[in-house]
Structures are given as C-alpha cells and as structure tokens.
Specification:
alpha/beta, six-stranded parallel β-sheet, Rossmann fold, 3 domains, 479 residues, transmembrane
Length: 479
C-alpha cells in the first residue's frame, strides 16, 4: 500500500503541474482547472488510503467533514456571479489559511504541546517548526482574507475603515509588536517542546491570536487600488502555511501542493507589484486609497468637464476606424460586460475595429477584467494587455473608458507629486478622442483627481454603465 500511495501522489503532483501550466492562457484555463481538480481528488484518495493503514480511523467524522465541505463550497462557487468572484476567491483562500492554523492547533493538543507524537514518537525539528510556522502564517492569511472579503463585498462599515486608513501608521507599528509577540510565543513553545514536558495550550492560543490580529491590522488600512496584489499575496501565504503543515504531518501531498501555490502566488504578487511600479513592502506598509475617497471635480483638477450624450457617443464610434474599450471596476459593478459585447458586435458589423485594453490591476483581483469579458464571449484575441496595447492608442479614433480611473490617470506619468507617480498606466490620453462612462466625478480608489476627465479630447457620459451602454446600442441601431 505504501508504494500505491507514493504512485498516486506522484500522479497527483504531475496533474497539479500540468493543470497549472494550462492557466497561463485563457483558452486552456478551464481545462487546466479540471486537470488540477482531478489531481487533488487523487491526492485525497491516496491520503485516505494512507490514513487507513495507520490504525483506527473515524470514517464517520471524515465523511462528515467531506460532506460539510462540499455543501459549503459548491453552491457559492456555482451561484456567485463573475462580478463577485474576487471576494469569493478571498474567502476561499482565507478558509484554507484558517484550516491550516486549526491543524497546527490540533497537532499541538494531540502531541501534548509537541512533547511527543500521537504514536509515541519523539518530536522533531520539522514537526515543531512546521506547526508553529503554519499557525502564524495560516492565522494571518485567514483573518487578512476575511477583511479583504468584507471590503470587496462592501460589508465593512465605512467609518471603521476610515479609522484604520487615517491611523495606518499606528496600526503598522502595532503589527511589528504583534509579529514579535507571535514569534516570541512560538519560540517559547519550541523550547518547551521536549519529550514528557508539555506546554500550556494557552501559548499556542497566544500565537494564533497575535497572528490573527496582525492579519486584521495589515489588511484593514490597504485601499482598493492595492487589493489585487493583497489577494495574491494572501494566496501565496496560504500555500506556504499549507506546505509547513504538510511538513509537520509528514504529508507529501500538502508539502508539494502548498509549495506550488506559494511559489505561483509569490510570482504573481511580484508581477502585480511590478505592474504598479511599487514594491510589496510599500503596498503592505504604505498603501494608498481607502475606498472612500472624497469627490473630485473640475475645480480641483483645473479643467472643464464636457458632458456628452448616448447619441453623440454612438456617432463618434460608428464613424471611427478603431475603438478601444478600457474596462474597470465600474464595469464589474454595473455588470455591463454583456452589453459592451453587444455594442462591440454592432460596431464591428459597421466595419469598426474593436479591441479591449486590460490593465494588470484593473478590478479587484488578477485577471478580473479578462474573466468578465470572457464570460460575455469576448474573443481572447481582442483582449490586449497593457504592454501590447499602449502603442496603439495614438492611432485610435475613440477610446471608451468604462469605470476605470486610476489605471488611466496621466498623473502617474506626468506629475511627480502624485501618489501614483511611476505606476504604469494605459495611455488613454493619447487617443484622438476619449469617452468616459462614470456615475459621477468622484475620485478612484487612489483618492486623487484624474486630469484625463477634463482633457480637451475627453467627454463624459454620466450614469450607470450598463444603462449608458444600452442607450448607446439603441442609438447605434438607429444610425
């Protein structure tokens, strides 16, 4: 049976890696997900076989756990709309981190404070260090992901959020104290973890509480503009904590799967930070934007706003040779992706070339805009990444910006005093004409004005994005 388990684990790891490689492209992403899911099923089966051979097993408890997981996991995954996918990802990721923290706690209790294994074996350094690392990082990931979920779902009280943003430096200093406290508790437990010398359960509770509060304080002050990077970072931390727990439990599947998640999440986090031209410490300890920015206006941005109508917008695009659509979080909130696709189809029937410019951090999670547009059957080839499309704006007749703000702000390129200066943006201001769909002149999550909105070549179409695009569609049909 030992050889069978090893063979099944190897097969599962191969499917993990092959499935992950499929996620590098939209056309193979669904297949990659299914392949990785089959790999996880094989890993679970192998683990159950291994557990069965270790002695008495409470299969009723295991079955109940599996049933609860399916009941709580499948319905939200099937019913959640694409617009709410970022918060679902944050929640599921947090559950993984919380599970790892509970495993570390259970291991501590099961082994009498790491004084021995369940089967009488003496503790080893990997068991002690792995469990304590999993407890700290898993707890940080769970509570941090929970805050991210509440922020994205807009369930967090705005007054509470403002307090954290306003006093961000105080909470960041508190995080240092909490980290030292969690590590100190963990070191003490490690020193006490010798055969026959159990430690009080309150020490591991201290580790979990200190790390959990730190997770809350880390994510609370971080604004919406940084949320895609934060979600990716928390995902990487969950993977690393799972690998540490696997080390403690001597479970090869957890070690390999956790390292794959941790490595891929770390790479993605770095890529996202580079896309914003910011370091990861700057995002975690010096975030900008609290999601509650004050409203801006033409007076503060030094220009005049020119409002337009759906009829004028339709005429501009109908007689253009090339139109670029720039989606942002406003498109997701209005669920306007299907309307945008219908509008693009009408334009293309009139001989207009339509493309979509995707900024790496547009939306609330990596690839958020790609997922929404793909749901509306927008061709993958029409979605252009920032580096590929930026050189095309200068020869574009009309750029339609839907709910995007900070990722199109030319201040990032032109104003050294701007908080987002240096962040790569979409060069929308280089287009011959720009139409911006927004509800109002309120600032984006960075909390600053966007000079693009008052530029000579820009006009504003105010209102709900889905409704506005629908009105443009009717006007296009009448032309």
């Amino acid at each position: 049976m030992t050889y069978l388990v090893d063979i099944l684990y190897i097969a599962a790891f191969a499917l993990f890696i092959y499935g992950l490689s499929g996620l590098t492209g939209p056309k193979t992403a669904v297949r990659g997900n299914w392949i990785a899911a089959v790999g996880m099923l094989i890993a679970v089966i192998a683990t159950l076989i291994r557990v069965r051979d270790t002695g008495y097993v409470n299969w009723i408890l295991i079955g109940a756990g599996l049933l609860i997981g399916v009941v709580l996991g499948v319905p939200p995954a099937k019913r959640t709309k694409m617009t709410a996918m970022p918060q679902l990802v944050a929640l599921f990721n947090g559950v993984g981190g919380g599970t790892v923290a509970l495993i570390a706690w259970a291991e501590f209790i099961e082994t009498d404070g790491f004084s021995h294994f369940t089967h009488g074996e003496e503790p080893t350094i990997p068991v002690v260090i792995g469990s304590l690392f999993a407890a700290v990082i898993g707890s940080v990931s769970f509570w941090g992901s929970l805050v991210a979920f509440l922020k994205l779902q807009e369930l967090l009280n705005k007054n509470v959020e403002k307090v954290f943003v306003k006093n961000a430096r105080i909470f960041q200093l508190s995080n240092v104290v909490l980290l030292v406290l969690a590590v100190a508790f963990a070191v003490y437990i490690g020193i006490r973890a010798t055969p026959g010398e159990g430690s009080s359960v309150w020490w591991i509770v201290g580790v979990l509480v200190a790390a959990g509060v730190m997770g809350l304080f880390v994510v609370f002050p971080i604004g919406g503009a940084d949320m895609p990077v934060v979600i990716s970072l928390l995902n990487a931390l969950t993977g690393l904590s799972a690998a540490a727990a696997g080390l403690a439990l001597d479970n090869t599947a957890m070690i390999v799967a956790g390292m794959i998640v941790g490595a891929s999440g770390s790479i993605l986090t770095n890529l996202m930070a580079v896309a914003m031209n910011r370091s990861i410490p700057a995002i975690v300890f010096g975030s900008f934007g609290g999601g509650g920015a004050a409203a801006g206006g033409p007076e503060s941005s030094g220009g005049t706003v020119k409002a337009t109508s759906a009829a004028d917008a339709a005429i501009q695009m109908a007689y253009a040779n090339r139109v670029i659509v720039v989606p942002g979080y406003g498109l997701a909130v209005a669920q306007a992706q299907h309307a945008v696709k219908d509008m693009a189809s009408i334009l293309e029937s009139k001989g207009v070339e339509v493309a979509y410019a995707i900024h790496p951090v547009a939306g609330r999670m990596p690839g958020h805009m790609n997922v929404l547009l793909a749901e509306a059957d927008v061709p993958y080839d029409a979605m252009k990444e920032m580096d590929d499309v930026n050189g095309e704006f200068a020869r574009t007749d009309v750029t339609l910006v839907i709910g995007a703000n900070d990722v199109t702000n030319p201040a990032a390129r032109n104003d050294p005093s701007s908080p987002i200066h240096g962040m790569p943006i979409l060069n929308v201001d280089q287009s011959k004409s720009t139409i911006v769909l927004k509800r109002s002149m309120s600032s984006g999550y960075a909390g600053i004005d966007n000079p693009l909105f008052t530029a000579d070549t820009t006009s504003m179409l105010f209102g709900d994005a889905k409704k506005s695009v629908g009105e443009v569609i009717e006007e296009l049909k009448a032309l």
